[in-house]
């Protein structure tokens, strides 16, 4: 492997089990919102991913500069810029994976749901074009509020005659990345080998770290669990407050987004990937979407692997998350269905 590929591998290996069946196809990834705080560093990481042959960058502004800059990096992936609504169709045409960080971020004092009024319409309009020009693509949604934008995407695809329930993924990888960072720091384990599932959704109490399933198997005191759980749930707000009005997590999100996009391109190429993601799911009664570990293959989600064995405390977190998830999912569905 060239040095850059080794570097990317080290970023993307944590927490994934794979059954390898490599094919020679080299997927195209379309990145929508490519000039933004997440978009730029995410583009940088995707450009170095040896699994990606073509990277199509779309935004309302700035993509020619970002693409010119990235295209000077000596990796094999080809980068092309698309700017403004007229170029969106050409950007997504033929894409195997569409990654969407387009939309506004939080400022201190806001919830993710406060972004709904702006971001719901952005995701709806982008997915309208994806449904027509890349109906078979895997779609990874980063734009908040994820608990609502994922159902929005599924409903828009459905309106266009496309059943994409198994191919629309809410990116919750940052919650997993954070849990693994905080746990490895606390316990002194190797971060690259520390695996912590985070299930539920991607907002406040819907973010549910399952510390009892951490690998390597670790013992947490009650006090540690009571401190770690809200820290992981509120980690996004920790960054929003530290950035003091300049946006939310961008660098850690770029890593998380690149890691999840890598999972999807490898699935497209024939690997079986296991990862947590917010998807259409029957894992928990009463909610149509839920994040658990899922098995991803060429056709999208092949198996929902479910919640697994949890402690009474973790079951309490799941029960507490359900009403908020129901509300936020219904809000997204209603936005499209009226
Ligand atoms: P940003 O404002 O820095 O960048 C957003 C980009 O989207 C801008 O370049 C903007 O021009 C572009 N954009 C806006 N409307 C668009 C449209 N219609 N088509 C294409 N591009 C459009 O914001 P950011 O920090 O990159 O955050 C983006 C989103 O990601 C926010 O909604 C934020 O809440 C979310 N986010 C999610 C997670 C997660 O874990 N899922 C983590 C961090 C941030
Ligand atoms: C995060 O978890 O960092 C993102 O959802 C951004 C935010 O608003 O917190």
From TrEMBL:
<feature type="binding site">
    <location>
        <position position="144"/>
    </location>
    <ligand>
        <name>substrate</name>
    </ligand>
</feature>
<feature type="binding site">
    <location>
        <position position="119"/>
    </location>
    <ligand>
        <name>NAD(+)</name>
    </ligand>
</feature>
<dbReference type="InterPro" id="IPR015955">
    <property type="entry name" value="Lactate_DH/Glyco_Ohase_4_C"/>
</dbReference>
<dbReference type="Pfam" id="PF02866">
    <property type="entry name" value="Ldh_1_C"/>
</dbReference>
<dbReference type="GO" id="GO:0030060">
    <property type="term" value="F:L-malate dehydrogenase (NAD+) activity"/>
</dbReference>
<keyword id="KW-0520">NAD</keyword>
<feature type="binding site">
    <location>
        <position position="253"/>
    </location>
    <ligand>
        <name>NAD(+)</name>
    </ligand>
</feature>
<comment type="similarity">
    <text>Belongs to the LDH/MDH superfamily. MDH type 1 family.</text>
</comment>
<feature type="binding site">
    <location>
        <begin position="33"/>
        <end position="39"/>
    </location>
    <ligand>
        <name>NAD(+)</name>
    </ligand>
</feature>
<dbReference type="InterPro" id="IPR001252">
    <property type="entry name" value="Malate_DH_AS"/>
</dbReference>
<feature type="domain" description="Lactate/malate dehydrogenase C-terminal">
    <location>
        <begin position="172"/>
        <end position="335"/>
    </location>
</feature>
<feature type="binding site">
    <location>
        <position position="59"/>
    </location>
    <ligand>
        <name>NAD(+)</name>
    </ligand>
</feature>
<dbReference type="Pfam" id="PF00056">
    <property type="entry name" value="Ldh_1_N"/>
</dbReference>
<feature type="binding site">
    <location>
        <position position="106"/>
    </location>
    <ligand>
        <name>substrate</name>
    </ligand>
</feature>
<feature type="domain" description="Lactate/malate dehydrogenase N-terminal">
    <location>
        <begin position="28"/>
        <end position="170"/>
    </location>
</feature>
<feature type="binding site">
    <location>
        <position position="112"/>
    </location>
    <ligand>
        <name>substrate</name>
    </ligand>
</feature>
<dbReference type="InterPro" id="IPR010097">
    <property type="entry name" value="Malate_DH_type1"/>
</dbReference>
<dbReference type="InterPro" id="IPR022383">
    <property type="entry name" value="Lactate/malate_DH_C"/>
</dbReference>
<feature type="binding site">
    <location>
        <position position="178"/>
    </location>
    <ligand>
        <name>substrate</name>
    </ligand>
</feature>
<comment type="subunit">
    <text>Homodimer.</text>
</comment>
<dbReference type="GO" id="GO:0006108">
    <property type="term" value="P:malate metabolic process"/>
</dbReference>
<feature type="binding site">
    <location>
        <begin position="142"/>
        <end position="144"/>
    </location>
    <ligand>
        <name>NAD(+)</name>
    </ligand>
</feature>
<dbReference type="InterPro" id="IPR001236">
    <property type="entry name" value="Lactate/malate_DH_N"/>
</dbReference>
<dbReference type="GO" id="GO:0006099">
    <property type="term" value="P:tricarboxylic acid cycle"/>
</dbReference>
<protein>
    <recommendedName>
        <fullName>Malate dehydrogenase</fullName>
        <ecNumber>1.1.1.37</ecNumber>
    </recommendedName>
</protein>
<dbReference type="InterPro" id="IPR036291">
    <property type="entry name" value="NAD(P)-bd_dom_sf"/>
</dbReference>
<dbReference type="InterPro" id="IPR001557">
    <property type="entry name" value="L-lactate/malate_DH"/>
</dbReference>
<dbReference type="GO" id="GO:0005739">
    <property type="term" value="C:mitochondrion"/>
</dbReference>
<feature type="active site" description="Proton acceptor">
    <location>
        <position position="202"/>
    </location>
</feature>
<keyword id="KW-0816">Tricarboxylic acid cycle</keyword>
<keyword id="KW-0560">Oxidoreductase</keyword>
């Amino acid at each position: 492997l060239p040095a850059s590929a080794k570097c990317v591998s080290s970023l993307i290996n944590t927490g994934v089990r794979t059954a390898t069946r490599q094919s020679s196809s080299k997927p195209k990834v379309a990145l929508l919102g490519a000039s933004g705080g997440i978009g730029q560093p995410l583009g940088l990481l995707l450009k170095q991913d040896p699994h990606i042959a073509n990277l199509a960058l779309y935004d309302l502004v700035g993509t020619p500069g970002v693409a010119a800059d990235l295209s000077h990096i000596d990796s094999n992936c080809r980068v092309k810029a698309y700017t403004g609504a007229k170029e969106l169709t050409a950007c997504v045409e033929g894409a195997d994976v569409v990654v969407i960080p387009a939309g506004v971020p939080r400022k201190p004092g806001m919830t993710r749901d406060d972004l709904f009024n702006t971001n719901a319409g952005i995701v709806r309009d982008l997915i309208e074009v994806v449904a027509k020009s890349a109906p078979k693509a895997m779609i990874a949604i980063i734009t908040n509020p994820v608990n609502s934008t994922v159902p929005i995407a599924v409903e828009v695809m459905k309106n266009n005659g496309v059943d994409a329930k198994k191919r629309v993924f809410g990116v919750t990888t940052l919650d997993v990345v954070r849990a693994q960072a905080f746990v490895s720091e606390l316990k002194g384990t190797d971060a690259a080998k520390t695996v912590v599932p985070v299930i539920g959704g991607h907002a406040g109490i819907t973010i549910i770290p399952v510390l009892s399933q951490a690998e390597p198997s670790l013992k947490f005191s009650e006090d540690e669990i009571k401190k770690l759980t809200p820290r992981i749930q509120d980690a996004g707000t920790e960054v929003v407050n530290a950035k003091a009005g300049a946006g939310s997590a961008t660098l850690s999100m770029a890593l998380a987004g690149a890691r999840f996009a890598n999972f999807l391109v490898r699935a497209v190429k024939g690997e079986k990937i296991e990862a947590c993601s917010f998807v259409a799911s029957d894992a928990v009664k009463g909610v149509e979407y839920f994040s658990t570990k899922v098995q991803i293959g060429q056709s999208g989600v092949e198996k929902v692997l479910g919640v697994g064995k949890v402690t009474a405390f973790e079951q309490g977190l799941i029960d507490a998350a359900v009403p908020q998830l129901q509300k936020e999912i219904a809000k997204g569905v209603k936005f499209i269905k009226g």
